[in-house]
Amino acid sequence: MFDNKNRFVIENYNKQSCFASFLPGISGIHGTPLWNFYVNRGQAICSFGSENKDHSIMEFYPAHQSYQFTKTMGFRTFLKVDGTFYEPFVDDDMPHKMYIGMNELEIEETNEALGIKVNVLYYTMPNERLGGLVRTVTITNLAGAKKDVEVLDGMPALLPYGIALKDMKETAQTTKAWMQVEDVNEKLPYYRVRIALADAAEVSEVEAGNFMVSVNKNGEKLPIIADPALLFDYDTSLTKPVNFYKTEVLALAAEHQLCANQVPAGFACAHEEITDSYTIYSVYGQAGTKELFHTFADAGLVAAYFARKKMMRSSMNLQTRSQRQRQIQSSMRTASRPILTTSCVADIR
User: Which pTM does this prediction carry?
Assistant: First the structure.
């Protein structure tokens, strides 16, 4: 089944047969690509990063483990709607959909009891000097009356730059001693190790870092919670945001955070009265220097910027598809033996 945007639609995807795939890793001539691995469970994205698995931003797991862990270790959204707690995309009996496009992935869940709908859209950011995964979360009020909504949205575990796959799989507890997050109070968290983990005679500084930044439609930066214990407290399984149950979200974000010696989190915080809808725009990615990240984050991340980037992504994928079709047609004309049409069609797709 396809929607009016020609995207493939999967109803109640959490109950369907498991599958795994990747978003397109195309970022333009002047862009920086990211790989994005997703499954049809939870909020879909199960791992992403730059270059290879040694540069993960969300820890890499193979498909069979991603089917198990994505609901907990993937992206999460915690809401309080008029005081009632709700986490979308965890109750398999709640009506939900997945939309798979050429250059995007979107998930949707409708909660009739609370009178809200939650949409999450993913796409990679083209033509920027740093690589980024864009995630927009839109909360729509389906009722007539205004709703008071508190939002926590992000990742329970965001790896600092400089952590290789082997470090997380074999010596994760020791590796925590190198982890830190900078500039959380400035709402520009920058995740990197204090020094390179290489076993060498000389200590070397790490300039590159992973990052997140979240804004509203006007480009106003949102507070960030990078300390998982501040949110989950005693629940080390990261299932229940214990302190969110009993504390207003902005008050929680204002509390002291421990930003070193543990695997950090990355949650944006907002508290709004919603009449129609409210959207959080977030970018998760990797930058060569902190200065490069700050330049990007201060360059006007408003709703119109993300609309332009999404349109740019669509045009790039159409160009890529057109080029691929021309290459296949050219190869068919010059081939010395017949090429099966079914193989060509599969290649185009």
Answer: 0.88
